[in-house]
Amino acid sequence: MPLIVDDKEIKKASKVDEFVTLFPHFKKSSDELIKQSVEVVGPEQLLYIGQRELAGTSPDDDVISILGSEDATTCHIMVLRHTGSGAAAMVHYDGSSVAEGLQNMISIVEDLTEDMQAGRLEVHLVGGFVDERKNSHEVSDKVIEALCESSYRLHLVTACITHFNTEYRNSVPFPIIYGVAFDVKAGRLFRAKFPDKGPDMALRGARHCTGSKENLNIYNPQTHRLEIGPFHYDRLPNVDLFLSLPESHIRKYLSTSPEQEPDTFCESVRAGLIQLRDFPNPLQTVFNGGKPKVYAKDKRSGLWQLQPVG
């Protein structure tokens, strides 16, 4: 089925360079989002979604009401919402398994919606910038293609991507928005940053350091549990050499956009590399009995607490 933009059917995917020319009204809505102040979102009611992760829930969830993600430079963050049920899902794309990730989000929303005909599926896209290597262009192109080729009618409401999310500092391009949150109960998208990203971020980051392509679903909206894994990651040759590198080299060799990465980038990469080094064969060393690590959110503190393996 075609993608719907401004009530018009888009049956053929266009590259992002053409897309921004065909649909200039997204510049206005992007500017409105950009003008927002950045809200600091605490852990209460928050489900943080990292790179190559996705998750979703509904307004009936009394544990999670905010989906959030950040640290997107060339990456794109997508929100999919059903206007009838209010069920919503979010993914943090880096260009891997885009169509599969979209279908998984649709399945999450479908499972949480009694009557799909009593509303429509709306999409919000944020991320990327006009980087010199055009990595953002590649991600934008893949996302637009997946939306156009979906078997569902998808209404693109927000597209603050690549060209519309770029500012220049001393002639160097930077993304303007690095992170967003979505209030599932209010149906509101807003700029955000997240001091607490939840548990096992080194483990979660290690997964895509060695090439795992799948965008994993990390939340069960029926049990209200955060579920990490089980998954495998490969050994990384010369990991100690990478760990010995100065920050400038880590940015140069392990980032798609070295100059534009947030201040926490090198720290996060080092944590992932240490995870790879110290816990090889995670199906044996991390996931007890091949089972996921399961967390329940403490409603008072908002922090995730590890649950015993059943």
Write up what this structure looks like:
This protein has 310 residues and is of the alpha/beta class. Helix content is 28%, strand content 26%. It has helices at 16-22, 25-34, 98-111, 135-149, 201-209, 239-244, 247-254, 265-278, 282-285, and strands spanning 3-5, 8-10, 39-40, 46-48, 53-57, 66-69, 76-82, 88-93, 121-127, 154-161, 166-169, 172-175, 180-183, 188-193, 216-217, 219-220, 225-228, 293-297, 304-306. It has an eight-stranded mixed β-sheet with strand order 2-1-10-9-7-8-5-15, sandwiched between helices. Strands 3-14-13-6-4 form a five-stranded mixed β-sheet, with no helix packed on it. A four-stranded antiparallel β-sheet has the order 16-17-18-19, with no helix packed on it. Helix 5 packs across helix 8 (265-278). The chain is globular. 40% of the residues are buried.
Arithmetic mean pLDDT: 94
Helicity level, as a percent range? 25-40%
**CATH first level: which class?**
Alpha Beta
The ordered H/E elements are EEHHEEEEEEHEHEEEEEHEEEHHHHEE
Portion in beta strands:
25-35%
Structural classification: alpha/beta
Q: What is the overall number of helices?
A: 9
Strand tally:
19
Work out the radius of gyration: 19 Å
**What sort of overall outline do the alpha carbons produce when their principal axes are compared?**
globular
CATH topology (level 3) name: 60s Ribosomal Protein L30, Chain: A
Protein name: Protein N-terminal asparagine amidohydrolase
GO molecular function: protein-N-terminal asparagine amidohydrolase activity
InterPro entries: NTAN1 (IPR026750)
Organism: Elysia chlorotica (Eastern emerald elysia)
